[in-house]
Specification:
Largest sheet: 4 strands, antiparallel
Helix content: 10-25%
Number of helices: 2
Structural class: alpha+beta
CATH class: Alpha Beta
Distance between the termini: 72 Å
Strand content: 25-35%
CATH architecture: Alpha-Beta Complex
Oligomer: single chain
Order of helices and strands: HEEEEEEEEHE
Strand order of the largest sheet: 6-5-8-9
Shape: globular
Length: 188
């Protein structure tokens, strides 16, 4: 067997693969760089924290084919809650035509969210963005912004659905995820 004949199928596969690859589903923010410290504008205002509690602007691209809606889940897995972490923001039923949320979209009334989007209560007990506010002296916490591309146009959840139920239904209908992680800690 000639060496050229051995490598021809591999070369063809590499060339074809490079023309058929899809771009990764991406979540980004002009207000938060990946792995960076979250700005005081986004920090909670309460529990001893003195931030402005403004939700960051978010943008996404390259949603998977078949996406019919989006859900955004913001979670702190480092919160000292006995393992449950802390839900900082949940938004579901974001239409598939939407590719961004403006800064401040996470007000409790949801007025700046796209029509049809739903914000259940966070672990602060109210709907809308609740910014970082970890205990003083803890190591910097991870804040995981996960945008889920869903295979359904709408999650039919009851009013007052818990964050855990929302997360369960979101995960059951996810066809793709995009992740952005920021950090925040308090020394005093």
């Amino acid at each position: 067997m000639k060496l050229d004949n051995l490598y021809t199928p591999l070369l063809v596969a590499l060339l074809l693969g490079s023309t058929t690859t899809t771009r990764a589903f991406e979540l980004s923010s002009p207000d938060l760089k990946p792995g960076a410290t979250i700005d005081s504008r986004q920090v909670f205002n309460g529990f001893g924290c003195t931030g402005e509690n403004i939700s960051p602007a978010l943008e996404w691209k390259n949603a998977p084919q078949g996406t019919k809606s989006f859900a955004l889940l913001v979670h702190d897995p480092d919160a000292p809650t006995g393992g449950a972490g802390w839900w900082h923001w949940l938004v579901y039923n974001i239409p598939a035509t939407i590719t961004a949320l403006p800064p401040g979209a996470g007000t409790p009334d949801g007025a700046a969210l796209p029509a049809g989007a739903v914000q259940p209560a966070t672990d602060f007990g109210t709907p809308g963005w609740g910014g970082p506010c970890p205990p003083i002296g803890d190591k910097a916490h991870h804040y995981r912004f996960t945008l889920h591309a869903l295979k359904v146009e709408k999650l039919d959840l009851p009013p007052g659905a818990s964050a855990s139920l929302v997360g369960y239904m979101v995960n059951a209908n996810t066809i793709g995820r995009a992740l952005l992680v920021g950090f925040y800690g308090r020394k005093k």
